[in-house]
Amino acid sequence: MKKGLVLEGGALRGLFTAGVMDVMMENGIDFDGVIGVSAGAAFGCNYKSRQPGRVIRYNKRYAHDWRYCSLRSLLKTGDIFGAEFDYHTLPDKLDKFDVSTFDSNPMEFYAVCTDLVTGEPVYKLLMHHGYEFNEWIRASASMPLASRIVDVEGRKLLDGGISDSIPLRFFEQQGFDRNVVVLTQPKGFVKKPNLLMPLIRLQLHRYPKFLKAAAERHLMYNAETEYVLQQEKAGRVFVIRPESILPIKHITHDTDLMQKVYEDGRSAIQLRLNELKAFLSSPDPKLH
Predict the structure, then answer these.
(1) 69 forms bridges with which residues in the sheet?
(2) Cα–Cα–Cα angle for 204, 205, 210, rounded to 5 degrees
(3) How many helices (H) and strands (E) does the chain have?
(4) Residue 80's CB: how many other CB atoms inside 10 A?
(5) pTM of whole model > 0.85?
(6) What span, in angstroms and rounded, lies between the C-alpha atoms of 251 and 245?
């Protein structure tokens, strides 16, 4: 039995996910693999490095630093979330990522990106930390209009959520048969077409296959949430999601709001810890 953790993105909605992860880590819940998309990758790598508390700490500490996230950063660097500051300076110097623990932990860690040329998802296995590791994470979390294209290992990449927002099927195909899925939208949420597509087309007109994926993202996303719900009803996956729409936008500088969303995640899993442990330890692939 291979236990997997699947983490949706959602920018700072991912603080809900961080709360869930921290409680699981504090209670010794381990997985054979973790796959994260966008913020799910940027925050989820802390599971393999075993650093509960790190995500909420650095988000609050640098919430008002223009280099971390700001319109000034977007205008000055081309990235609303500062590429050099967020993905190199911060983890390497300011709030250090535990490289030795990450590298020695046998847990598989995947980040999902979208290839601009093909419009297809790229599932990158990242077992060791380094400069390119940080660039893959940055690519996974780089939203169109708010980020520059990320060039890494010969690919041009952006936000993994464009092509595979909830990569449960991929993990099942990799042999993970006992999966926990953390969503950042409530049950019944339906994604609508992106109203910013005209601007995205202007920015990325050289990449028609990516534009097709972006235009159809809502269809992909809604099909994936339906699949997750089916698997949940069948008892094949354990799903943690907020009860209602989280009171946070993609970006905020309100540290109290950050803390609230984080605490919402902690509360959501604390109420179901025994149920989660039973699901992960049961020899039957069905929970019910």
Answers:
(1) 81
(2) 60
(3) 13, 8
(4) 21
(5) yes
(6) 15
3-state secondary structure of 136: helix
| Helix ranges (DSSP H) in 153-216 | 168-173, 197-203, 208-215
What is the C-alpha separation between 256 and 191, in angstroms, rounded? 27
Provide the H-helix boundaries in 166-284: 168-173, 197-203, 208-215, 217-233, 255-270, 273-281
Tens of pLDDT, residue by residue over 2-25, are: 999 999 999 999 999 999 999 999
Stated length of the chain: 288
Residues 96-142 have pLDDT tens digits of 999 999 999 999 999 999 999 999 999 999 999 999 999 999 999 99
User: 169-215: per-residue pLDDT in tens?
Assistant: 999 999 999 999 999 999 999 999 999 999 999 999 999 999 999 99
pLDDT band of residue 283 (cuts 50, 70, 90) is confident
Residue 37, H or E segment: strand 33-37
46 vs 141: CA distance, rounded Å: 15
Q: Strand 237-240 vs strand 150-152: parallel, antiparallel, or unpaired? A: unpaired
**What confidence tens digit (pLDDT) does each residue in 37-83 have?**
999 999 999 999 999 999 999 999 999 999 999 999 999 999 999 99
Q: Is the dihedral of CA 140, 142, 144, 148 positive or negative?
A: negative
Strand duo 33-37 + 108-115: pairing:
parallel
How far apart CA 221 and CA 226 sit, in angstroms, is 9
Could you tell me if 217 and 194 are in contact, meaning their C-beta atoms sit under 8 angstroms apart?
A: yes
CB atoms under 10 Å from CB of 271, counted, come to: 10
| CA pair distance 243, 252, nearest whole angstrom | 21
Whole-angstrom Cα distance, residue 49 to residue 51?
6
Residue 284 sits at the vertex; the CA angle it makes with 283 and 285, to the nearest 5 degrees, is 115
Beta-ladder partners of 112: 37, 123
